[in-house]
């Protein structure tokens, strides 16, 4: 298929339709509104369902119904709307329903603004709803990945019977780049557990309520085992120029692109710097970070929040190496030069000696 110049938000919908998605329930919000708009355009063309709900609370519960019927379905929103969806996401995860949710992050808290941030990380990666559950989370760093990771998200959702979140910042949602889309697949048949309103599916029950404590514990342990399996099988990251890196930069989404430019600037000055970009935020690529720590002497995390991704990096490294932190918030995205200046300031003396000191 020829490359198409496509906006990130629209790429999500095109990829979803090609992956067999046939239902979208949502409510528009900047900077994610083009997803709803594109879904309204494309889904009816393939015999699918588009429904603009009266609220984000309604749309996530409609998603529960569509997923329970065995349809590949999705919704999309941004921070304030995603907050309203958290209870529904807990129900969906508890009922083991596969679906895809796109979160195009904007500035917060509260209404904040419509500029890009990465401050929904904890809400999405740690599970913002109640109870012991996880959502699988993928983090595109380009418009091509907006398409590719959406395709993968639907496969992961079906494989693990779990909601999968495509987590992107406003920059990645709004930028336009050439995209090569995957070939369309046949719409998957409804699974045996689905509720279809037929005699064959009449006995099927999709629920997240288990009133007996032992039954609920058994169910939670089943979910836990599923998440551990995903941690073993799904974690993915991009490592770039890390083979001889003394300092490894860590960032996702738009920050991954900024940090690649930082790596180039640092290398031009003879500083051995590389990049690790998490592609899955849950499961987090712990093994990759620990492997990098065998040679790298320090890590620098850069993100558009006051510090959320950095917590997972520190947990993964478990004190093996020092972790420094750089952030911008409020919808501000730093230039490569700004991050480079921070890097030189932070590691100044050790860079001059071509050696990064390990503290403690």
CATH H level, superfamily name of the largest domain? Thiamin diphosphate (ThDP)-binding fold, Pyr/PP domains
Main sheet properties:
7 strands, mixed
Q: From the helix content, strand content and strand pairing, which structural class follows?
A: alpha/beta
Give the CATH class of the largest domain: Alpha Beta
Shape: globular
Q: How are helices and strands ordered from N to C?
A: EHEHEHEHEHEHEHEHEEHEEHEHEHH
Q: Uncertain segments of ≥5 residues (pLDDT<50)?
A: 356-360
CATH topology of the largest domain: Rossmann fold
The average pLDDT is 95
Known CATH architecture of the largest domain: 3-Layer(aba) Sandwich
Beginning-to-end CA distance, first to last residue: 53 Å
Radius of gyration, Cα only, in angstroms? 21 Å
Indicate the percent of residues in helices.
40-55%
DSSP summary: helix tally = 13
Tell me the number of structural domains.
2
- Tell me what portion of residues adopts beta-strand conformation: 15-25%
Q: How are strands sequenced across the largest beta sheet?
A: 3-2-4-5-7-6-12
**Beta strands, count:** 14
